Amino acid sequence: MMDHFLNSLLQIVIVLDLLGLLAYFALSALKRRKQAAEPVALPAMALVEERPGLWTRFRQRLSFRPGGQEDVEAALDNLRRVLYSYQQGLA
């Protein structure tokens, strides 16, 4: 009885999560369409900067150097070293 209740509750939560995800993408698309339709009054000499993409912003947030550039190979080597040390500790 309790299993049936928990399964039903889990299914409801999953459906609500999916509906929320769909609503998020639909509203963001609507927002972009609305922003594109509204003309923006800019001064004659102003330049409009293009927003960086999702992956560019993600990498900038994860960068370890002040200039925004990170050494990916060094970071992967460090991760590999840490994972191998955990593997050695478990063995």
Strand residue percentage: under 5%
Low-confidence stretches: none
Radius of gyration: 23 Å
Task: Name the shape in a single word.
Answer: flat
Largest sheet: none
Walkthrough of the structure:
The protein is mainly alpha-helical and about 90 residues long. Helices cover about 70% and strands about 0% of the residues. It contains three helices and no strands. The mean pLDDT is about 80.
Summarize the SSE layout with pairings:
Layout: H1 2-37, H2 54-61, H3 72-90
List the main descriptive attributes of the protein structure presented here:
single chain; 91 residues; mainly alpha; 3 helices; 69% helix; 0% strand
Quick structural overview:
With 91 residues, the chain is an all-alpha fold. The chain is 69% helix and 0% strand.
